[in-house]
Amino acid sequence: MKTVYGVSILAGTIIGAGLFSLPYITSVVGIGVMLGYMVFIGLILLLIHYFFAEICLKTPDYLRLPGFAKYHLGKNAQKIAYFSGITGMMGAILAYLILGGEFLTALLSSTFGGDTVHYTSIYFVVSAAFIFFGIKAISKIEFWGIVTFFILLLLTFFRGFNEISTEKLFFIREGAFDFFLPYGALLFAFCGLALVPEIEETLSLGKERKKLLKIIPIGLIISFFISLFFIIIILGIMGEGTTREALVGLEDYLGNGVTSLLLVFGLLVIFTSLITIGLTVKKILWYDLQIPEKKAWAITCLVPFSLFLFGVKDFITVIGVVGATMIAIDAILILFMYEKIKDKRVRIITYPLIVLFLLGIIYEVYYFFV
């Protein structure tokens, strides 16, 4: 049973805000390019997650990425890991807040009025409360949330089957093509690195810890096919009407009933991901950096929400930057650590990947900040 919940923690966290960006991004680059990216990034991240799992299993004590970096690479690497890990997860929380607010607005504004800022604020308060109390049953909620959401995707597929057409599925937005747009978003969408040590803890001591190496590919493969299925459904039904938030506007094609259910359980999926990531950030600040628990909670919750209030509200931009920079830095550290527990022969794999991630960081910084 622990294996099932381990898979649910990994897949449930991966199937978060990043999933909902994929149909729109596919409409920009085309489904052929997107599928190529998904296979390429998926295989790379499968290696990175697998390498990290081996590092976890071969390093004494239960640590997080900064602790592993210090143990294998020294204090400077630990500082880099703290920066990339905390910044990246804060960015993820921000993306979940943005998307959660959009979903709540789509669900409730027609009945109760109000704008996105009001509903994002409500979503923030509820999320912050869960992170404060450290809800332990979140993995069980996550598991059933994924199952229910997937069932609803199947229902949506059959409900909107007559709306799906190859013309819509192969639609490309005129004048919007950006070949590199999927890169950062897919790194974000398929990344569950922060949860690998958490899963190791749930498996506890003994032989069950080795199940971690089985959980990694299962969780990633499930995430890959759900993501592909989601793209086919949303883009195939909406075509040029596909929105940046995927589910928003779907009622024009399927009616309010199915769309409202999708919004509710889509909200649940990203909510559980937000809580899981939020609890991880709080633990890093509390356990590793020795910040008092309440202050660690306040930093975890208030920094992303403040960025939202100051105008950072485009979640595709947020996940693209986080994926191509912070997740890439984490991956590079993992590759260097993997060399430490293996031998120099693995450099035939690790060095090309390090170069790839470095080029991605340079491109993303230039594209968004220059």
Folded structure, characterized:
The protein has a single domain (2-369), classed as Amino acid/polyamine transporter I. The protein starts with a helix and ends with a helix. It has 16 helices and no strands. The protein is globular, with a radius of gyration of 20 Å. The model has no long low-confidence stretch (mean pLDDT 88). The chain has helices at 2-14, 17-29, 31-58, 65-73, 75-112, 116-133, 138-159, 166-169, 181-189, 196-203, 212-238, 251-254, 256-288, 293-309, 315-341, 347-369. Helix 1 (2-14) packs across helix 13 (256-288). Helices cover 79% and strands 0% of the residues. With 370 residues, it is mainly alpha-helical.
N-to-C series of helices and strands: HHHHHHHHHHHHHHHH
Our measurement of the CA-to-CA distance between the termini, rounded to an integer number of angstroms, reads: 49 Å
Helix content: over 70%
Low-pLDDT regions: none
Number of strands: 0
User: Any idea of the CATH class?
Assistant: Mainly Alpha
Q: Describe the sheet with the most strands.
A: none
Radius of gyration of CA atoms, rounded to a whole number: 20 Å
CATH superfamily: Amino acid/polyamine transporter I
- In CATH terms, what is the architecture? Up-down Bundle
Number of structural domains: 1
Structural class: mainly alpha
Instruction: Note the overall shape.
Output: globular
What percent of residues are in strands?
under 5%
The helix tally amounts to 16
Per the CATH scheme, the topology name is Amino acid/polyamine transporter I
Mean pLDDT across residues: 88
- Quaternary structure classification: single chain
